[in-house]
Design goal:
43% of the residues lie in helices and 19% in strands. It has 312 residues and is α/β, with parallel strands linked by helices.
């Protein structure tokens, strides 16, 4: 069992205040993502799981009673929608929406039911309501692809699990061929791409791989703003934590750099590299050497294994 600790509710509010000074209005979303990971970690640390919704309804109040965040009332539980009411919310009592609670609840529910659930706070006591009401529904994105038998036999590209690879090439198809070689042998896949996903799926058989599109289009549920590196990192981390020997293709770092800074993107890749090592997974990072400075390319070469693309 991994060690864990209990902290006072005021600590959440102190953290929020610091985040608001740094991030402003984005602080709530950061707290939500942090809460989601904390909820996942709690369930995994305790080693509990729910085989059906009846068992889930019994376990959830017991887990929540240990959090000290609020009192929970289960209003409605089906596979389509779960409605939870909270009384005496610590976050709401301080005049804030229950962002950490929302993420924590989503993390616990998703891990117990082995399926990603998104939580929306429909009512909040901080806005004059009697209680806080959260509604959870299955997420549209694939978070944990169906388990498949994994075998390295017959793979064209021999890659060592637990490492990240840099593919320096002007031909993006090389990276996709390496990625496809991995997922067709049973490894769960995730792509972060700049190209429109529907066009990509028409060209390559990505199967049930999770796909995130680097775009500012907020009307598409799988689009992620390239400047929101913390959100992208959180989703990749959640993916790696949810599968065995996952393969992540991070295509479009040149675009991310152009919208942000190389230093920020490099830190993002360094954190992913560490997660890949811990989870015994793979990270593929294709890059056009002509689109970055020579210094930037050298920095990436120091962090990642260089994949020989010339002989492919």
């Amino acid at each position: 069992m991994n060690p864990f600790f209990v902290m006072p509710g005021q600590a959440i509010m102190d953290l929020r205040e610091e985040l608001e000074l740094i991030e402003g209005e984005e602080a709530g979303e950061t707290l939500q993502r942090y809460g989601f990971r904390a909820g996942m970690g709690l369930v995994k640390s305790l080693g509990v799981e729910a085989s059906d919704f009846e068992q889930f309804a019994e376990i959830l109040p017991q887990l929540w009673a240990e959090t000290g965040l609020s009192r929970i009332i289960e209003e409605h539980i089906t596979d389509k929608e779960i409605t939870i009411t909270f009384e005496e919310s610590i976050e709401a009592a301080h005049g804030r929406k229950c962002d950490f609670t929302r993420g924590y609840l989503s993390g616990i529910v998703s891990t117990l039911l082995k399926k990603k659930y998104d939580a929306v706070e429909k009512e909040c006591a901080s806005q004059g309501r009697t209680n806080c009401v959260h509604v959870l529904s299955p997420a549209k994105e694939i978070v944990k692809p169906a388990a498949k038998e994994t075998s390295a036999a017959g793979m064209k590209f021999e890659l060592e699990l637990g490492y990240s690879y840099l593919l320096e090439t002007e031909d993006p198809s090389i990276a996709y061929n390496v990625f496809l070689d991995q997922i067709t042998h049973g490894r769960p896949g995730m792509c972060i791409i700049r190209e429109y996903p529907e066009k990509l799926r028409a060209r390559y058989d990505l199967g049930d791989s999770t796909v995130l599109w680097l775009s500012y289009d907020r009307d598409i549920n799988y689009a992620r703003e390239p400047t929101n590196v913390p959100l992208i990192y959180s989703e990749v981390k959640n993916f790696l934590d949810s599968v065995d020997h996952g393969v992540v293709l991070l295509s479009g770092i040149e675009y991310m750099v152009s919208q942000s800074t190389f230093t920020k993107v490099l830190k993002f890749i360094q954190l992913l590299n560490e997660n890949v090592a811990v989870r015994n997974s793979l990270l593929l990072v294709p890059v056009s050497p002509q689109a970055l400075t020579q210094r930037d390319v050298k920095m990436l070469e120091r962090e990642l294994r260089v994949f020989d693309t010339k002989s492919r």
